[in-house]
C-alpha cells in the first residue's frame, strides 16, 4: 500500500540559492579573520614561535575547511519545500535536522536579510509556529524566491484559519 505524499516525511524538493555557498564561505571567513587577528596579536606579544607556527597551520586548515568544504557540504544537505499542508526543511552539515511545520500551526512569516545576504541578493524566510522547537528557517534564498515564498505561505495559511496553537 502506498501512502500519499502528505503523510510521508519525504526529502524537501528545493535547494537554497547557489550563492548560499558564497554566503556561508564568507560567514566562516569572518570567524577565521578574527582568529587570525588574535594569532597576530599573540605573535607580537609572545616571542616563542613554536606554538604560534602550529596555531598558524591549524588556522590555515580551519580556513580551508570553513571556506571550501563546509559550504559545499551544507549546500548538498540543505533543502526546503512549501506545500499546502506543511513547510519542510532539512539543514545542517555534521548535525542534520529535518523539520515539518504544519500550515495550521503557522503564526507568522518573516523575511530577514543580514549585511552579507543583502550584498548577495539573498534572504532568509522565518516561519514561526506554535511549537516548542522554535521557528523554521529557510535560509539563503534568492530575494524574489523568498518574497514569493512569503506570499504563498501567507495565502495558504489564510485558507487554514486555525488558531495556530
UniProtKB/TrEMBL annotation:
The keyword Transmembrane helix appears for this protein: yes
Pfam family, one: bPH_2
Claim: Metal-binding is one of the keywords in the record: no
UniProt KW keywords: Membrane, Transmembrane, Transmembrane helix
TM stretches of this protein: 21-45, 51-73
Residue ranges occupied by any YdbS-like PH domain in the UniProt entry: 76-149
Listed InterPro entries: YdbS-like_PH (IPR005182)
Domain of life: Bacteria
PANTHER family noted in UniProt: TRANSMEMBRANE PROTEIN-RELATED, UPF0699 TRANSMEMBRANE PROTEIN YDBS
Protein name (database record): YdbS-like PH domain-containing protein
Amino acid at each position: 500500500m502506498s501512502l500519499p505524499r502528505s503523510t510521508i516525511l519525504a526529502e524537501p524538493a528545493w535547494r537554497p540559492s547557489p550563492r548560499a555557498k558564497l554566503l556561508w564561505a564568507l560567514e566562516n571567513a569572518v570567524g577565521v579573520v578574527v582568529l587570525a587577528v588574535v594569532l597576530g596579536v599573540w605573535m607580537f606579544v609572545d616571542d616563542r614561535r613554536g606554538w604560534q607556527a602550529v596555531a598558524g597551520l591549524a588556522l590555515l586548515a580551519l580556513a580551508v575547511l570553513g571556506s571550501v568544504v563546509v559550504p559545499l557540504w551544507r549546500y548538498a544537505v540543505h533543502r526546503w519545500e512549501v506545500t499546502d499542508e506543511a513547510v519542510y526543511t532539512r539543514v545542517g552539515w555534521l548535525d542534520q535536522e529535518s523539520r515539518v511545520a504544519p500550515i495550521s500551526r503557522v503564526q507568522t512569516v518573516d523575511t530577514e536579510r543580514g549585511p552579507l545576504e543583502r550584498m548577495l541578493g539573498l534572504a532568509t524566510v522565518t516561519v514561526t509556529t506554535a511549537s516548542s522547537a522554535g521557528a523554521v528557517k529557510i535560509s539563503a534564498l534568492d530575494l524574489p524566491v523568498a518574497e514569493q515564498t512569503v506570499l504563498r505561505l501567507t495565502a495558504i495559511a489564510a485558507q487554514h484559519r486555525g488558531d495556530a496553537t
